[in-house]
Amino acid sequence: MIADMMPGTEEQLQKEMTSAYVGIDPTADSLHIGHLVSVMMLKHLQRAGHRPIALVGGATGMIGDPSMKSAERNLLDEATLRHNQDSIKKQLSKFLDFDSDAPNAAKLVNNYDWMKDYSFLNFIRDIGKHITVNYMMAKESVKKRLSRESSVGMSFTEFSYQLLQGYDYMYLYEHEGCRLQMGGTDQWGNITTGTELIRRKLGGEAYALTCPLITKADGGKFGKTESGNVWLDRRYTSPYKFYQFWLNVSDADAAKYIKIFTDLPKEEIDALIKEQEEAPHLRPLQKRLAKEVTVMVHSREDYDAAVEASNILFGNSTSEALKHLDEQTLLDVFNGVPQFEVSREELSAGVKAIDLFTEKAAIFPSKGEMRKLVQSGGISVNKEKLTDQDMVIDCSSLLDEKYLLVQRGKKNYYLLIVK
């Protein structure tokens, strides 16, 4: 999990309980799995007896960090930032212990609290004079933005970002005894500006440690799917979709991710990798990875429900299991299957299956074909075999009072939506 660290970091961690922080951008009211890497670093840190500090960048979130970004971001108002901070703390509580009396209990801070009353004149007088423009221009993130052949350029607001992040580090160094800042490799420049400021202004010693930016084996962006980010909040990414994301990563990625996103001991991971090499079709790595991360982010119940939902599509599950699905999971599971709309009015009176599936919804091209399939046991409605084509279907048959699932053969599904 380690990409770079400043000389002396390891010695500092071995010497005493060390407070270390990671900055999190509160641009949304949920973390996504891209944040999980630095959160796991804080988790490991606390397990090793050190004190994690999660810094929500309320002030810096109003500006935006130029690192790895091609454009400036929208600025947020204070009420939105506060709401986002509360939501993020709730999520972090699943990984970090904020509430115990232990000396290394985690702490959440927001840089807006110490930046909001700091005047611009005081800031450039107190902080700006300690860091030269040459030093700031030499940073990789700044050089990259300036070298891009675009007319957008880089605003002074963004250019000053590293000074603000450097000041955060100095503030936490003074007020929380923080000696280490961690983040992704794209943060190295911003973090070392902080260590430099602490050295020049306070004569203090502070350290930097970064983890590799997580990539996919095929070069695609980690954590992005066709529908966008994979979020930790179930409102944006359902536990089923979350579980499926991890289940569907490639073998090479699974071997890498299981080391980063789980607490499994090295011996167990090595055994799983060996198992995968011997029987890749059984996907032991992906299954274990998906289980560990889903239980950690959501719950054991959510994991069990996601496995059961997956079995509905790919296994021999029962109508009972189908009835247990909540609406969102049902739609996630059958996302992409052909859908037909039927009016509630027509269904209320009851419609024969053969009329419903040929005339009202064209699942079968003809009644003759449907009859043959019914006789050979090839049609199921809500996971129950249809034995009589003249069976009357009405609103009492619906899932979630709205859906009817028709299965033709083993793999062809159709969803009827009653409106």
Could you explain the architecture of this structure?
The chain is of the alpha/beta class and 419 residues long. The protein is built from 20 helices and 15 strands. The protein has helices at 9-15, 36-47, 78-92, 112-115, 120-126, 133-137, 140-147, 156-159, 161-176, 188-202, 239-247, 251-260, 266-278, 284-297, 300-314, 319-324, 327-333, 344-348, 353-360, 367-375, and strands at residues 4-5, 19-24, 51-56, 107-110, 178-184, 207-211, 224-225, 228-229, 339-342, 351-352, 379-381, 384-385, 392-393, 403-408, 412-418. The strands form four sheets. Strands 1-6-5-2-3-4 form a six-stranded mixed beta sheet, with helices on both faces. It has a five-stranded mixed beta sheet with strand order 9-15-14-11-12. The model has no long low-confidence stretch (mean pLDDT 90).
Keywords:
5-stranded mixed beta sheet, alpha/beta, 419 residues
Fold topology:
Blueprint lengths: L3 E2 L3 H7 L3 E6 L11 H12 L3 E6 L21 H15 L14 E4 L1 H4 L4 H7 L6 H5 L2 H8 L8 H4 L1 H16 L1 E7 L3 H15 L4 E5 L12 E2 L2 E2 L9 H9 L3 H10 L5 H13 L5 H14 L2 H15 L4 H6 L2 H7 L5 E4 L1 H5 L2 E2 H8 L6 H9 L3 E3 L2 E2 L6 E2 L9 E6 L3 E7 L1
Parallel strand pairs: 2-3, 2-5, 3-4, 5-6, 9-15
Antiparallel strand pairs: 1-6, 7-8, 10-13, 11-12, 11-14, 14-15
Q: Specify the biggest β-sheet.
A: 6 strands, mixed
Which range does the strand content fall in? 5-15%
Structural class: alpha/beta
Point out poorly predicted stretches.
none
Share of helical residues: 40-55%
- Radius of gyration over C-alpha positions, nearest whole angstrom: 27 Å
Shape verdict: elongated
